[in-house]
TrEMBL record:
Its EC number is 5.3.1.14. This is Predicted L-rhamnose isomerase RhaI. It comes from Jejuia pallidilutea. It is an enzyme of class 5 (isomerase). One of its GO terms (molecular function) is L-rhamnose isomerase activity. InterPro entries: L-rhamnose_isomerase (IPR050337), Xyl_isomerase-like_sf (IPR036237). Transmembrane segments: none annotated. SUPFAM superfamilies: Xylose isomerase-like. It comes from the Bacteria. Keywords: Isomerase, Manganese, Metal-binding.
């Protein structure tokens, strides 16, 4: 399934005039306040978010998994699905692979397919949270932190293998997320587990090519429910610092205890030049799989305010690896990803509207009310015409969800792939 440029142009025709009116109205009012609208549209056009290869099928919980017809059943089909997302949104120009879930069988063919669809290979993810078929050692009691040297060595080797796979595809980063931890007090010695993890990460780091980054992801709990070895940004930063300059902290929005001030975390990590990547999702309680912006869009905007500030003021921090990391049980995964991409762009656009000079002046005067007015003035602006304009300029759809539905993408995928679903094996 490939969407052609003229199909998108046809669907755009219906909304073109009303888009033009909305865009003109908004840009005229923004220009009056001194906003450089063109530069915002260009930044939105350039902003690309990686799609995780595991989000393209219907997700699930440990209580069940409901299939979604027309799901991709191999890496080729997953790349095709990202091609659909990218042609509609022009924002999904990268894929993030999880190994061994997505080991390419033919590297040249996969690269060629991705190139043809303008999709790059972003960070590769290792997986030492599941036992692999025929593996000599089990990760039941941890991987890089395990008390057994043989288990640690197997986990280190897996990460080195993942780097090799990513290298063949043009990836430049390895993301390490560990499920390691304990479910009951006394089960683990915290210090031994942490030190083992540090030593193992150093061994992996030694195998990292010079132009690569290592991204260390943290999570407070799940699947372990008493302690997690890399539980928070502090643990991640200590481990990254213990490895070297090419190791960074990765922030996943859903990996925080309720009400954590995530915007402050990303801000200080950027100041220290140590924020390497970002996983987007949303959550109401302690989950990490809901559509971006579906629950706490204001929190997302505040995070983007800090990210924009950091991108403009912290040259010591590298470009970030952006990725969606969400997969749940009820929506068409492609529609869900389109909604997430839109929410990310929306928060980014609103953050770009913040008058940073005026904010700094109000902060210096301790004018707390003005500070809030500046932030909320930007937040309350309906920026959707800016997003639509950026997509239009890039050859995407004015309204990606509408286009996805009117082009009957899902039913075409079902025709092509059959009613087979990965989830149920039907
Ligand atoms: C863990 C996580 C991590 C994994 C992905 C599947 O919750 O966020 O990034 O690699 O989910
Ligand atoms: Mn994640
Ligand atoms: Mn997660």
């Amino acid at each position: 399934m490939k969407i052609k440029q003229n199909q998108i142009q046809d669907t755009n025709k219906i909304n073109l005039q009303s888009h033009q009116e909305k865009f003109d109205f908004l840009s005229n009012s923004l220009i009056k306040t001194g906003t450089d609208v063109q530069s915002i549209v260009n930044k939105l056009k350039d902003f690309q978010v990686a799609i995780p290869s595991w989000a393209l099928g219907a997700g699930g919980t440990r209580f069940g998994r409901f299939g979604f017809y027309g799901e991709p059943s191999n890496l080729e089909e997953k790349i095709d699905d990202i091609g659909v997302l990218h042609s509609l949104t022009q924002t999904a120009g990268a894929v993030s692979l999880h190994i061994p879930w997505d080991i390419p069988s033919d590297y040249a063919a996969i690269k060629e397919k991705a190139d043809a669809l303008s999709i790059k290979f972003d960070a590769v993810n290792s997986n030492t949270f599941q036992d692999q078929k025929d593996a000599a050692e089990s990760y039941k009691y941890g991987s890089l932190s395990n008390t057994s040297k043989a288990v640690r060595e197997q986990a280190i080797q897996h990460n080195l293998d993942v780097i090799k796979i990513g290298d063949k595809l043009g990836s430049k980063a390895l993301t390490v997320w560990l499920a390691d931890g304990s479910c009951f007090p006394g089960q683990n010695n915290f210090q031994t587990a942490f030190q083992n993890t540090q030593d193992s990460l150093i061994d992996i780091y030694k195998g990292l090519p010079d132009d690569w980054k290592m991204l260390v992801e943290y999570k407070p709990y799940e699947p372990n429910f008493y302690s997690t070895v890399i539980q928070d940004w502090g643990a991640s930063l200590m481990l990254a610092n213990g490895c070297g300059d090419k190791a960074y902290t990765l922030v996943d929005l859903g990996h925080h205890l309720p009400n954590s001030n995530i915007e402050q975390i990303v801000s200080i990590l950027q100041l220290k030049g140590k924020l390497g990547g970002f996983h987007f999702n949303d959550s109401k309680y302690g989950d990490d799989d809901l559509t971006v912006g579906s629950i706490k869009p204001y929190a997302l905007f505040l995070i983007f305010n800090e990210l924009v500030y950091g991108m403009e003021n912290n040259p010591q921090n590298p470009d970030l690896a952006w990725m969606i990391d969400a997969s749940h049980n009820v929506k068409d995964p492609l529609e869900d990803l389109i909604q997430s991409l839109e929410a990310i762009q929306e928060a980014y656009a609103k953050a770009l509207l913040i008058d940073q000079k005026a904010l700094k002046a109000a902060q210096l005067e301790n004018d707390v009310v003005k500070c809030q007015e500046i932030l909320q003035g930007a937040y309350r602006t309906d920026v959707r015409p800016l997003l639509a304009e950026a997509r239009l300029k890039a050859g995407g759809a004015l309204s990606p969800i509408e286009a996805y539905r009117s082009l009957n993408v899902r039913s075409q995928l079902i025709t092509e792939r059959g009613k087979h679903t990965v989830a149920t094996g039907l």
